[in-house]
Amino acid sequence: MSQTPHNILIIKPGAIGDLLHISPALRALKKHLPDAQIDIMVGSLATKCLFEHNPHIRSVSHFDRKGDHRSLRAFFKLWHEVRSENYDLVINFQRSNFKVWLLVMAALPCRVLVYHKTRQRMVHAVVNHLETLAPLGIDVKEANLNLELFVSEDDKQFASKLISVAGLGGKPLIALNLGASNRIKCWAPQSFAQLGDRLATELDAGIILVGGPDELDLAELVMVSTMAKPLNLVGKMSLTQLGAMLQRSKLLVSGDTGPLHLATAVGTKVIGLFGAIDPMRTGPVGSGHIVISHPEVPCVPCNDKKCHQTPYLECMTRITVDEVAIIAKNIVLEER
After folding, report:
1. Tell me: the pLDDT tens digits for 260-292?
2. What predicted TM-score, i.e. pTM, was given to this entire model?
3. What is the largest CA-CA distance in the chain?
């Protein structure tokens, strides 16, 4: 077996942010092994587009254990596809999934690197993923930590058309991402509505609501509470279309969730609203981003999935419209 890998498979089922957190590792891997062919396997058809235009990647496949590959027949078809590629290196970024290990075994004999989430020390997820590549001679300290997302020309034209039809051309665009994988991470819809009204009035900004199909209820609450009547795009775009829309925006205001990382990956400034979750692990990567949190709340950070405190969700309710609006105005005015 060759000492230098030439045919590499990366396995990373996961959510949007988790996938974007490995983009610096992909870049570092290709820089270190420029002649290698790198394939990636993600967890759903919806997330494949995050890498389809990535110049470091040869091909993108998916393993959907609860959907497309739920049956044994479909799973073993995928197993044989992995087997047929003759990979000489597999990087498993999802070590807790048994079926992923079966897919790794399909590539044997080959070298296998495995991601281990840090428990004893606090490092950002981007650094943690890069550390998996250390056995290849890749130095984390020399790596560029910025996230990457490559959007297509079709995605850019899609965004341009939406902006034009909505009459927002020439206005600074500010995107508000309303939801998150867990509602404990969400700022109140009424607060987003007040923020949108202030920024529309004080900056003559075009306000855009973004989010996934599971957040339509939040968008409705904002729309009935705001005078500005934002452009509501919640649940109406693919991930790369959202990336293109965020690329056209001056700013995104969001809790700790995938679109926050999409924005940083396309070079857009973000204001991250962090309550229970520690931004040291999953906060925005890069310069110019602002995290608003209130560590004076005794339970922050708890990194829990439910709030058991009184008053309820104080970590998020302490974040005021005033403090977000002041920071947002400063960022947008600096961009002009």
Report:
1. 999 999 999 999 999 988 899 999 999 999 999
2. 0.94
3. 65
- CATH topology for the 153-335 domain: Rossmann fold (3.40.50)
Are both 7-142 and 153-335 of the same fold?
yes
Position of tokens 């590499």?
8
- Nearest Cα to Cα of residue 148 among 262, 37, 49: 262
41-65 pLDDT, tens digit per residue, is 999 999 999 999 999 999 999 999 8
Instruction: Strand 290-292: give its sheet, edge to edge.
Output: 231-232, 206-210, 173-177, 251-255, 269-273, 290-292
Short-list 290, 334, 291, CA closest to 315: 291
**Backbone conformation region of residue 26, classed left if phi is above 0, alpha if psi is from -120 to 50, else beta:** alpha
Can you state the percent helix, strand and coil of the chain, rounding each to 5? Answer: 40, 15, 45
Q: Which residue has the tokens 């209820």?
A: 217
Q: How far apart are CA 190 and CA 145, in angstroms?
A: 35
CA dihedral 243, 248, 250, 252 (to 10 degrees): -20
- Reported as a single tens digit per residue, the pLDDT across 214-238 is 999 999 999 999 999 899 999 999 9
Strand order in the sheet with 59-62: 59-62, 37-42, 7-11, 89-92, 111-114
Domain boundaries, the chain: 7-142, 153-335
Residue 259, pLDDT > 90, answer yes
Structural domain 7-142, CATH architecture: 3-Layer(aba) Sandwich (3.40)
Pairing of strands 251-255, 231-232: unpaired
Distance CA 299, CA 276 (A): 8
- Pairing assessment for the beta strands 206-210 and 173-177 based on DSSP bridges: parallel
Sequence length of the chain is: 336
226: left (phi over 0), alpha (psi -120 to 50) or beta: beta
Token digits of residue 56: 């470091």
